Amino acid sequence: MALRAIRGAIQLDVDEREHLVKSTAELLTKTLHANEIENGQLVSILFTSTPDITSEFPAVAARELDLGDVPLMCFVEMDVIGAMQRVIRILIMVESDKARSEIQHVYLRGAKALRQDIAQ
């Protein structure tokens, strides 16, 4: 097995705790499903959020999906002028037999515009 990195992002409609947790859970679930990843393959998950998101840590969604035994870290994205607002990004590190070219990166809602070259 090789160590693989899976990217993803979702744009929130509003910065409200319930919406953030539900949206982050949707992103995680769809990304793990698209790549046929099981809990035992997870090495770690990194979350970033744009500076305008303050209602909750995105990692809470992972804990609510029973991923609490996976190392989780949250960071704030750089505050770049003109950058898309209300975005949660993920970087999931997994052990997988898949080739790098087989990895499915998942970008949802407005975040699809961030990586049109690889968005589902």
UniProtKB/TrEMBL annotation:
Name of the protein: Unannotated protein
InterPro entries (UniProt xref): Chorismate_mutase_AroH (IPR008243), RutC-like_sf (IPR035959)
Gene3D superfamilies: RutC-like (3.30.1330.40)
Organism for this UniProt entry: freshwater metagenome
Pfam families hit by this protein: CM_1
Transmembrane segments: none
GO annotation (BP), single: chorismate metabolic process
GO MF terms, alphabetically ordered: chorismate mutase activity
Coiled coil: none
